[in-house]
Amino acid sequence: MTIADFQCKLRYGWIGLLGLLAWLDSSQAQDPLDRHTAGNRLTYLDEPCDPYYVGQSFPKLITPQWVGEQGVEAVVTLAIDDMRDPAHYEAYLRPILDRLKEIDGRAAVSIMTNQVDPNDEQVSRWIREGVTIDVHTIDHPCPCLQDSNFEQSRKTYNDCVDLMFEIPDNRPTTFRMPCCDSLNTPSPRFWSEIFNRKTANGHFLHGDSSVFQVFTPDDPELPADSLRNEDGRLRFDKYIPFPSFANTIRNYPYPYVIDGVCWEFPCMVPSDWQAQSLHQPNNPLTVEDMKVALDLTVVKKGMMNLVFHPHGWIRNDQMVELIDYAVEKYGKKVKFLTFAEVTERLNQNLLSGTPLRDEQGRENPNRLLDLNEDGYLDVVQAEPPVTRIWNATDQTWMETPTPFQLGRAMLKKTAMNWEYSSSYVNRVDRFGVVGPDHDVVVSSLSRTDPSVGRQLYRFQDSQWQIDATLQSFPLTKSSTKGDEVLPGPIARGIFRDVDGDGQCEWLQQEKQTVVVYGVREHQWKDLGYAIPDAWRLFPSDWRLTDSGLRFIDLNQDGQEDVVASDGSRFGAWLFDSPETGWARLLRKGQRSDEGAIPPVARGGRNNGAWFQKDTLWVQNEDTARLPDLVDRVTFSDLLVSQDTEKKNQGLPLPRDSEAGLKSIRVALGFEVELVAADPLIADPVAFDWGPDGRLWVAEMSDYPLGVDGQGQPGGRVRVLKDTDGDGQYDHSTIFADNLPYPTGVKVWRDRILISTAPDLLVAKDADGDGRADSIEPLFRGFAEGNQQHRVNGLRYGLDHRLYLANGDSGGHVTSTVTGESMGIGGRDLWVHPDTGAMGTTSGQTQFGRNRDDWQHWFGGNNSNPMWHYVIEDHYLARNPHVNYP
Ligand SMILES: [Zn+2]
Hints:
The chain is an alpha+beta fold and 885 residues long. The protein has 15 helices and 50 strands. The chain has a six-stranded antiparallel sheet with strand order 38-39-40-41-44-45, with no helix packed on it. Strands 1, 2, 3, 11 and 12 form a five-stranded parallel sheet that branches. Strands 4-5-9-8 form a four-stranded mixed sheet. The longest helix has 19 residues, at 86-104. Zinc ion binds next to strand 1.
């Protein structure tokens, strides 16, 4: 059996079970941002560097929150790349700069530069016009991290930063990673180990613009018709340069903070390179799509950062056309700014004048989080000590005091290599979601009297209050004691909802174990399980940045699984239950073992790992020779445990019923409950209820090669009973067995119909013991073909007929009641069990022909989830002049 067959069987089974659900949206599967919903909506504050954590469900930071100018709703930054030759750039840019100056006298363009003479006259003329000269590395390496030479990568960045600071009156603020629009060049390792530090000359930047943002139809706020081309292709996804391009976020056109000290200004898809690669240079369709991206940015009140080049991929008059469009359509609503201006406005109007980095380049602790769950980010600041809540109705900020400490206070005092430590490791403050109302809480020290020790503050009634109900919080007892040698008040734990109940547990590093505390009956209790194999939350040396531990929901059951990997060892465990924790080992071993997970950290430092598209990706100086410049392992590969791998030749582990239930997502208003699971049933593909509430289930246990691998039939029909009336079935009887690949079951008066090619059987339980006493063919002659393509269905029509899906195999069918025969090639069919009558009808359905309340019939096949069979055969057949398919 191949994996494809197995998955096909799973899918086949679920379609049977979910037959009553109107809609199952597979496109919702594992949006990476769902990691940050419910109990884990704040964990991004306390995770190792992840440049891709935002997305559609993440709280917005709309332009009116930070731009500081009445009437401005969206911002455009034009950032041209690769500058070495100012004369060439002047020739290309001049019409663009002049057009921008017509708006308000400023030439708001940022030039991402590799090398330039700091005293070049053209450069200083540009700066007087409003242009900023920003950073793109000295020698443009693609990828920047390569040749197993980390210091070389650091140098090309640092030297470029220093050079741009040498330009008189220049305000370099922002970096762009070379080739970020065409290759997987950005890496968390870059932000964690290079960007977050200073150059030897003491320079540093405030922002980056390397991550690509894609608008998709998943965002209900966007007009759906603007997200597809006329041929049905996704308007923006079509520009993604190759399937494994992982440098993207979706439906989040706003600035966001990476690792505490870097503003990310995401670039809009398409860049001019992506566009010329798809449909030739200078294509007018590119400009049309950029205009639509601008329209959608205005809808979202966001920010659009455009990547372009003077390399013949887009003409300067096309850029001017886009500016004309923005000005004519939106006027003052859309503002053109440089990266320096954006950074300045964020500092002044969002962060009370306190930038993300202080004048020494250290972190100013500004926490951006949605305190009141209104979908907009709020700000919690230490300096000045205010908490600012965005009032979305009035479009204003309201302030309340911040009574606790934020940041890395003790490290500042010790002054030891502060810049070598990532912003999340040595924090005083830890944010979480706790309590029945899912309030935001923070564990920290009092601002005015730190000697009181660690307290839990709760955000309630628009202000911070010391939490009186949770005084048993572990850290209130022993904040500075213990075996760990750690500087004073640093929080040795994090909040995280590991069991998926909507509120956080508290995970605390104690000696070599991470103990998990949870709220039970208003008290914090040790839950009795720990992170496996002594993997640490934080590196043992507090000057390091990464222990290699990550939480991620690998099997999509709503609970946090553990993936851990460093230079010497690795492991992955599934969260099993709130009683047993991470008890299900997937794999573990030493670095050199087969099946090793790529190193997430090494030497206590961030090694460039992130999660996206159900995959763990790693990009660093050692992965540059691998395909697409990355090392990677998919979640489905991780879910194959080493033991199971040996036993099952690579098949993924099945989910248990609880996990399976949690993994099902349905549209608003629908609910899925578990009514039966194994061992009561196995391999279900179809079911039907009898008038007595019993559930009849067809089980295709012989799929695909028979129970003996040689075609021996082994399908069954079971009947389930709920003997104690609690709504869950608890008793199961095999009604009929040894059936060849049964596909459908239907209760009909006192009989049971079973579709099992070549027959449609009728069976009867004469003595009421739940077992069939007679089984007879009612119709014969259905072709047997591929087991996934056999007659199935038995849906009741408003005309009192039973309808069947052809299955694609056709056949020449005979009614045993009337002796009548008919061919069913290319047609679905109906039967009447009492009279033995039958007929064909329009449509050819592979599996699952169903109707709505108006007798409109629908069918589908493997590749097409749903067709509507608009006109029934019997209408068409009345007109002999119509030739229908
Ligand atoms: Zn470039």
